[in-house]
Amino acid sequence: MSLIKAENISVHLGHHQALDHVDFSIDRGEIVTVVGPNGSGKTTLLRALLGAVAVQGKITRADGLRIGYVPQALSIGANLPLTVLRFLSLPKRRPKAKALAALDKAGVTGLGNRQMSELSGGQFQRVLLARALLDSPDLLILDEPTTGLDQPGSADFYRQIEVVRRDTGCAVLMVSHELHVVMSASDRVICLNGHVCCHGTPEVVASAPEYRALFGKGTNGALALYRHDHDHHHHGEASDHDHPHEAAE
After folding, report:
1. Model confidence over 202-228: pLDDT tens digits?
2. What is the pLDDT of residues 154-163, one digit of tens each?
3. CA 32 to CA 15: how far, in whole Å?
4. Are the CB atoms for 186 and 180 separated by under 8 Å?
5. CA distance 41 to 184
6. pLDDT band at 179, cuts 50/70/90?
7. CA atoms of 155 and 174, how far apart (whole Å)
8. How buried is 129 (Cβ within 10 angstroms: 0-12 exposed, 13-18 middle, 19+ buried)?
9. What's this model's pTM, rounded to 2 decimal places?
10. What percent of the residues of the chain are helix, what percent strand, and what percent coil, each to the nearest 5?
11. Residues whose CB is less than 8 angstroms from the CB of residue 42 and which lie 6 or more positions away in sequence, other chains included
């Protein structure tokens, strides 16, 4: 059974129809990336799956499903004295060992006593990831988690997500604009524009006319690099000529 399954769901926000008869499912251990232009309903889909907006249609969740959520952005006052470990204990206290283990899983071992205000953008996102991992989720949901990070920072973050999936077996649902970074790690890609325009393996979506119509010339270089990698490396291995962020580890 799927961890979560949405059947024929529609969402109206005021007079605007954000989602129109969308089907979606994700299985245990899968990485699914949702892409689409601004205003295409990507975040609304995540909110619907989290139960945060009213939907028409049917959403089925596996019994006892545990979800970890990494938001698009979180603002913490620069003058607020708040260590990483204290942040991980909000709103409820967590055993220190559990918090330290979550930081380790997120790839930021040793940051527990640092002030949140002193963290780099990449470190901050890793701490948000650690917070999402505290309760050993079956499904990790990330809403454009690399907004504001540079390309190497984004690539490092997504590689960490691959490590988390490998080590914990959780499924991963990501919303992203950065197709060239996440494609190699994704089992399936869903292209959304209020409805599902196309979906399938990264190769299928990359060559779909619906995808090209939405993203136009902006991703031609990225898609060419992606296809180049797979033409030469059928299993996604990196070569000396690949850029580090273009091949799965």
Report:
1. 888 888 888 888 876 555 434 433 333
2. 889 988 999 9
3. 29
4. no
5. 23
6. low
7. 14
8. buried
9. 0.84
10. 40, 25, 40
11. 34, 35, 36, 143, 144, 175, 192
Looking up tokens 């979800």, which residue turns up? Answer: 67
The gap between the terminal CA atoms of the chain, to the nearest Å, is 29
Alpha-carbon distance of 236 to 117, in angstroms, equals 38
Could you give the C-alpha distances from 6 to 55, 110, 131, in angstroms and in order? 10, 39, 26
Please report which confidence band the pLDDT of residue 242 belongs to, taking 50, 70 and 90 as the band edges. very low
Residue 37 falls in which region: left (phi positive, over 0), alpha (psi -120 to 50) or beta: beta
Task: Select from 151, 144, 157 the least CA-distant residue to 249.
Answer: 157
Q: At what angle do helices 96-105 and 151-168 cross, to 10 degrees?
A: 120
User: What would the two tokens of residue 59 be?
Assistant: 């959403």
